[in-house]
Specification:
By secondary structure, the protein is an alpha+beta fold. It folds into two domains: about 240 residues, no CATH class; about 90 residues, Orthogonal Bundle (Arc Repressor Mutant, subunit A), CATH 1.10.10.10. The protein has a seven-stranded mixed beta sheet, with helices on one face. Strands 7-8-15-11 form a four-stranded antiparallel beta sheet, with no helix packed on it. β5 and β6 form a beta hairpin. α1 packs across α2. The longest helix is centred in the N-terminal third of the chain and has 23 residues. It starts with 9 loop residues before the first strand and ends in a 10-residue tail after the last helix.
Amino acid sequence: MSTGIGRRVVATVVVLGLLVVPVAGAGVDGFTQEQVDADTIVLAVYIQADGDAQWAVSYRTRLDDDNTTDAFESLQADIRTNESTYTSEFGGQMNRTVDTASNATGREMAVENLTVSARTEALPQEYGVVTYRFRWTNFAQIDGEQLRAGDAVAGLFLDSESTLRMHWPEGYERTSVGPTPDRRDTRSVVWDGRLDFGTDEPSLVVTRSSAVSQTGTAAPQEPDGDGNARLLVLATVLAAGGVVAVLWANRRYGFAGGTVPAGSEPGSVESDDGPPPELLSNEERLLAVLDDNNGRMKQQQVADRLDWTAAKTSQVISGLREDDELATFRIGRENVVTLPGVDIADDVGDDEGESAGE
């Protein structure tokens, strides 16, 4: 393995309860000489109204020298050719982890639709992104009008390069969250490492909007107190020292964190039962506009639609891209922004140029 690319990144995703091993360790032919560092790791959880959750575990590597770029391109090609080899190892350990969580919570759980692939992103710096995506059934507990999430991953450890994001479905409002998140908006909370969650943490409770009082808040409720049964502290270290030999999921299983109902007026970022645009964060407004336009737009169109400056648009897009909530491509002279679940193949057609990720 090349020593010029730096330290290895071995990630024991506590939440997932598995060790993300180097490519060579996964026994993948054709990629045993070069490895890639991860600059950031994002764990994104999209909780659904039925209690299931879509997961994305993404490793982002800045491609700022020839060695790193060449190594990532080799990894990207190998993942495309040998996807099943990568998902087989991950899937086996993931299933064991979910079985442990199921025993601890008393809910029947399973892993579905596990995929892996790799791509590059630009605007303005170039990154290599490798992500696993999968569906974790019954991740959250349904309690009447509430969804309670976090017990399945209690005791998670985040190192300084890692971030956990939890998103909840439209039509729900945050009731309680613990510990205090580093960032929050109307549909998500974010914790940045370094952070060692307690035995009953992370904890997130959201309540269906129709059940919330007219004051706009619901009475806070403590998370389920059976904390000792939730000890899923499974050797949780996202330790420095490893390779990014894993991750980006096939985007056809992607998801975007929010939708605008069919029938909304063009340009609207407000759904019938959602908050008015002025109460949305910049990030939420941008995602809503994308979703209202089939998940893809030129960056200039986004700026025009939201009446933003080019600089503001670029700044918001960069933040969302780093959090793995959208993707960016260059087609000809145009910058194109898409939601993670959207394939731009149909758009490329007659346009000149290539996307940054192909």
